[in-house]
Amino acid sequence: MNRQGPVRYVVREGGGEGRPLSLALGIAYDEAPVPSHYYVADYYQVVVDDFAVLLIFGKLDHPQLDRLRNKIEIYFPVESFVRQLWHSSRDYQIALEKYVSDNKAGPVRPSGVSAQTDKVQTMQSNNALIVQATGDCIIDFFYISPKDLWLKPPKSEPIGMEALVRVMVTASVMLGFLQECDKVARELVDKLGMNLEDDNASLESKLL
User: Fold this and answer.
1) Distance (Å, rounded) from C-alpha 175 to C-alpha 44?
2) What's residue 162's pLDDT?
3) What is the rounded average pLDDT of the residues 162-185?
4) How far apart are CA 3 and CA 72, in angstroms?
5) How far, rounded to the nearest angstrom, does the alpha carbon of residue 90 sit from its chain's CA centroid?
6) 19, 35, 79, 138: which has the fewest Cβ within 10 Å?
7) What pLDDT does 24 receive?
8) Residue 93 phi, psi dihedral angles, 5° rounding
9) CA–CA distance from 92 to each of 17, 76, 148, 160 (Å)?
10) Are strands 52-60 and 120-124 parallel, antiparallel or unpaired?
């Protein structure tokens, strides 16, 4: 296990001649960089877009709730979305469902408001950390470069991790978002025949 920096990894041998080596990754989030950009959202969409899942977070233009003031778009590769963001949040979602129910609330469902707005910021992520403290929920989005994954392990060098943005939502919005991710991820697993037990190919995130 290479423990330099927040991205920990083990290089695994290939299964035969001509088969490339694989990496088993883990993230020490207590050592991960903290995003310098913060975004408060009360709107979301989860959309499959080719080989990525597009996560849209927006801010409704209060007091008019029929349009967005602004939004951010985060593209998540399908493989990382299923294996990391969704698969690692199953226990969290169960606990959040109980918290929201105990507080006599329910999930905020996807809004029918159009996501069209002139103020848009778009980014690419492949790793996310979801945390809750009482009703305050955050998602920290990160990016781990494929170039680093290719070049650094043969030299036993640390793999870089870029902090992108922190999205802040209520517990009800977070629950609705995770339930929507759950629906989309299960459809992708069935459609692509993904084997979640095979972690040799996965971008696995956990505290080490």
Assistant:
1) 11
2) 98
3) 98
4) 33
5) 13
6) 19
7) 87
8) -65, -40
9) 41, 20, 30, 26
10) unpaired
Cβ(53)–Cβ(112) below 8 Å: no
**Phi and psi at residue 66, to the nearest 5°:** -105, 15
Tell me the pTM: 0.90
What is the C-alpha separation between 43 and 56, in angstroms, rounded?
8
d(CA 206, CA 122): 26
What is the sign, positive or negative, of the torsion defined by CA atoms of 61, 67, 68, 74?
positive
Q: How far apart are CA 158 and CA 96, in angstroms?
A: 34
pLDDT band at 15 (very low <50, low <70, confident <90, very high): low
* Residue 202: predicted pLDDT: 37
Three-state secondary structure string covering the chain: CECCCCEEEEEECCCCCCCCCEEEEEECHHHCCCCCCEEECCEEEEEEECCEEEEEEEEECCCCCCCEEEEEEEEEEHHHHHHHHHHHHHHHHHHHHHHHHHCCCCCCCCCCCCCCCCCEEEEECCEEEEEEECCEEEEEEEECCHHHHHHCHHHCCCECCEEEEEEEEEHHHHHHHHHHHHHHHHHHHHHHCCCCCCHHHCCCCCCC
Could you give the CA distance from residue 79 to residue 58 in angstroms, rounded to a whole number? 24
Counting every residue written for the chain, the total comes to 208
Q: Which amino acid is at 55?
A: L
What band does 17 get if pLDDT is binned at 50, 70 and 90? low
Query: Residue 141: beta bridge partners?
Result: 128, 165
Quote the Cα angle for 120-106-183, to 5°: 65
